[in-house]
UniProtKB/TrEMBL annotation:
<keyword id="KW-0378">Hydrolase</keyword>
<protein>
    <submittedName>
        <fullName>Glycosyl hydrolase</fullName>
    </submittedName>
</protein>
<dbReference type="Pfam" id="PF07470">
    <property type="entry name" value="Glyco_hydro_88"/>
</dbReference>
<dbReference type="InterPro" id="IPR012341">
    <property type="entry name" value="6hp_glycosidase-like_sf"/>
</dbReference>
<dbReference type="InterPro" id="IPR008928">
    <property type="entry name" value="6-hairpin_glycosidase_sf"/>
</dbReference>
<dbReference type="InterPro" id="IPR010905">
    <property type="entry name" value="Glyco_hydro_88"/>
</dbReference>
<dbReference type="GO" id="GO:0005975">
    <property type="term" value="P:carbohydrate metabolic process"/>
</dbReference>
<dbReference type="GO" id="GO:0016787">
    <property type="term" value="F:hydrolase activity"/>
</dbReference>
<dbReference type="InterPro" id="IPR052043">
    <property type="entry name" value="PolySaccharide_Degr_Enz"/>
</dbReference>
Length: 357
């Protein structure tokens, strides 16, 4: 079987696994609730369905929203915004005004009411009964700022585009280590430190994957600061320097004695692809992404389950603590690998125009 056909079959099995009824009640795989875990899953399904032209996938997403939209009426927090990243594309496809109206009211909450730190960065808030006052997490850029950029791209409103760029840059400024280019998981604005100061792989993946998408959405609506580009390039270079020989990254990037982690690896590699696509990175980064595809393929079980995915991870008290996080199947693990595999045929064949950048 050729690799392209293998990838197509793998993506289909992964999709079918993600929507199984038997996952009900399992935190990592229950798709029928409104939070970041299913949010990353459905964002990824949208990317796969749109790229593949599979109407079945897009129909499923419309059904998913109709089943779950009443759950979006709960308390607004950053992590519960992730599913709204679907709404701009769903509005384009259906012209249902509810998608646009709901997206705009959610964006207004983000811009006018959501808590921010003293630097102006969105405070990371979660659906669980716990607070992280004046903490900035890398996760926020994917869970909330991506939505803002997409809505700006749909409506042409520069205020949304400007806010998305500002938040992306602020997160890089607050989280980036100037020496390695790598990101810390979080920043505590009150204490003015990075807490445990750990370069966690999935934190780096969220921003590596999202910044090129933000730029793609807001180009022509908002100025893209050179500092955003240069910081992103520094991040990508730092990530490439610690990629393992099998194409994956360790859960703490600068600890090769720690376990490797699949979802973060997929997100970083897909970010490399999108970074080259948007002209942020040169085409040499695609080789690293190709290696990641080859390294992850053997980690997909016959039933479509992505293996080696670490569970939900707050900012941990030490580097060693990140290495103890349990691994189990999750929708964000499925989703990040799905996004990478959606682009893998171009990566493996070398036919995408980005190779010629």
């Amino acid at each position: 079987m050729n690799t392209e056909r293998k990838l197509a079959e793998t993506l289909d099995v992964m999709f079918q696994y993600m929507i199984l009824e038997e996952h009900k009640g399992h935190w990592g795989m229950d798709i029928d609730h409104w939070d970041w875990v299913p949010g990353v899953g459905v964002i990824s399904l949208m990317e796969y369905g749109t790229a593949s032209g599979r109407r079945e996938v897009l129909d499923y997403l419309l059904q998913w929203v109709n089943r779950n939209k009443h759950k979006a009426e709960g308390a607004k927090v950053i992590n519960s915004l992730a599913p709204f990243a679907l709404f701009p594309e769903l509005y384009r496809q259906t012209k249902d005004p509810w998608f646009l109206q709901k997206a705009m009211s959610t964006a207004d909450w983000m811009l006018n009411t959501a808590p921010v730190t003293r630097e102006g960065a969105l405070e990371h808030t979660v659906t669980e009964n716990v607070d992280f006052p004046e903490q900035v997490w890398a996760d926020t850029v994917y869970m909330a700022v991506l939505f803002l950029a997409r809505l700006g791209g749909l409506t042409g409103e520069s205020r949304l585009a400007d806010a998305a760029v500002q938040q992306a840059l602020l997160h890089l400024q607050l989280l980036q280590d100037p020496e390695s280019g790598l990101l810390y998981h979080g920043w505590n604005s009150r204490e003015k430190n990075h807490m445990s100061a750990v370069h966690w792989a999935r934190a780096n993946a969220w921003i590596t994957l999202t910044v090129p998408q933000i730029i793609a959405e807001v180009r022509g609506l908002a100025a893209i600061p050179e500092e955003l580009r240069s910081r992103y390039c520094s991040l990508a270079a730092g990530l490439r320097s610690c990629q393992a020989g099998n194409g994956l990254w360790h859960t703490v990037l600068n600890r090769p004695d720690f376990v490797q982690e699949t979802s973060g690896s997929a997100g970083i590699a897909c970010g490399f692809f999108k970074g080259v696509e948007q002209g942020l990175l040169d085409s040499s980064f695609l080789e690293g992404a190709r290696q990641t595809v080859q390294g992850i393929l053997p980690l997909i079980a016959e039933n479509g389950e992505v293996q080696g995915v670490s569970g939900g991870t707050p900012v941990m008290p030490s580097a060693d603590a990140y290495n103890t996080i349990e691994t189990y199947p999750t929708l964000y693990g499925q989703g990040l690998v799905m996004q990478l595999f959606t682009h893998a045929p171009d990566l493996l064949s070398g036919t995408h125009p980005a190779w010629k950048v």
